[in-house]
């Protein structure tokens, strides 16, 4: 037990002892797209997915041309999140109705999964799994569960409260399946890495981030002051990114090595990055 506590203690402070650097991003406006957007995602092919405030999804190719749209705005209310990890199978989640709509790359509906029929009514986050199924976090059982397209539970972890000493309810805000590892993020706990059975692999003490996403091997987020930070999970290197523009009015940021995608209340601004 003593060795286990020591291991968890060491993991908890991984990034507190990591190398930290400051860099300045010189941003030049490349393109501005007007519209009322509340979310953006980018797949591994460079396609951009914009969710409008009227719950329409617009897909742009890497040349910023509109190539598809999803306009079914009447059945399930507000779109909570979309997962574009698999560009051939887009997941659209409506939390208020506990419903997942599965789309193909042309935005045709493949299937609709009503989680309430499977007694999964408290789900905040979902994600594509490597084997073309769906991961979700059951907030009631406090377990990660993998389901198929019919909502059947194929696999689940242990109750994660067994791993952490929670003094109050802690919801999860981000979930990703990468290289057969599960990455969970919470603004209080930081980034948690689990295997498929719920065993803790790593825990990175990087709390308080929004706009969380991965780019290559880096975990990226934005702090309360809208400063961008990147975390190299292999090298344990932290990079604080300053910019030559004001970022406080952005509602979401997605960072890549050559572009910064910034949502405002009435536009998407794409910046070219010069380090």
Question: What would your notes on this structure say?
Answer:
By secondary structure, the chain is mainly beta. The protein has a single domain (22-274), classed as TolB, C-terminal domain (Neuraminidase, 6 Propeller). 4% of the residues lie in helices and 49% in strands. The chain contains one helix and 24 strands. It has one helix at residues 2-12, and strands at residues 19-34, 37-42, 48-52, 57-60, 66-70, 81-83, 90-94, 99-103, 109-114, 123-128, 134-138, 143-147, 153-156, 174-178, 181-186, 190-194, 200-204, 210-215, 218-222, 228-232, 237-243, 252-255, 259-263, 267-274. The strands form five sheets. It has an eight-stranded mixed sheet, with no helix packed on it. A four-stranded antiparallel sheet has the order 2-3-4-5, with no helix packed on it. A four-stranded antiparallel sheet has the order 6-7-8-9, with no helix packed on it. Strand 18 (210-215) and strand 19 (218-222) form a beta hairpin.
Overall CATH architecture: 6 Propeller
Poorly predicted regions? 1-13
How many separate domains?
A: 1
Q: Considering DSSP H and I runs of 4 or more, what fraction of the residues is helical? A: under 10%
User: How does the overall form come out from the CA principal axes?
Assistant: globular
Cα-to-Cα separation, first versus last residue: 47 Å
Number of strands: 24
Structure class: mainly beta
Q: What's the helix-strand series?
A: HEEEEEEEEEEEEEEEEEEEEEEEE
Mean pLDDT: 87
Q: Please, how many helices?
A: 1
Rg from Cα: 19 Å
Strand order of the biggest β-sheet: 18-19-20-21-1-24-23-22
The CATH superfamily is known as: TolB, C-terminal domain
């Amino acid at each position: 037990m003593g060795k286990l506590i020591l291991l968890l203690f060491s993991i908890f402070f991984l990034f507190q002892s990591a190398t930290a650097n400051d860099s300045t991003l010189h941003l030049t406006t490349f393109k501005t797209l007007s519209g009322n957007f509340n979310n953006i995602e980018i797949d591994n092919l460079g396609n951009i997915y914009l969710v409008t405030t009227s719950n329409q999804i617009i897909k742009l190719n890497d040349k910023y041309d509109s190539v598809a749209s999803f306009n079914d705005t009447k059945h399930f209310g507000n779109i909570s999140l979309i997962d574009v990890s698999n560009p051939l199978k887009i997941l659209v989640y409506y939390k208020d109705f506990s419903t997942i709509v599965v789309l193909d790359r042309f935005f045709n509906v493949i299937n609709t999964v009503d989680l309430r029929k499977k007694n999964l009514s408290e789900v905040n986050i979902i994600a594509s799994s490597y084997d073309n199924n769906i991961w979700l976090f059951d907030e009631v059982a406090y377990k990660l569960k993998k389901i198929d397209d019919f909502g059947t539970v194929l696999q689940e972890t242990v109750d994660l409260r067994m791993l952490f000493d929670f003094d109050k309810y802690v919801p999860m805000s981000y979930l990703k399946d990468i290289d057969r590892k599960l990455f969970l993020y919470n603004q209080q706990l930081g980034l948690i890495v689990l295997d498929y059975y719920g065993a803790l692999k790593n825990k990175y003490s990087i709390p308080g981030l929004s706009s969380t996403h991965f780019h290559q091997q880096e975990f990226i987020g934005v702090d309360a002051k809208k400063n961008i930070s990147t975390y190299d999970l292999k090298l344990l290197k932290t990079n604080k990114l300053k910019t030559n523009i004001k970022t406080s009015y952005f509602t979401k940021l997605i960072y890549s090595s050559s572009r910064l995608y910034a949502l405002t209340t009435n536009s998407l601004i794409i910046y070219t990055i010069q380090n």
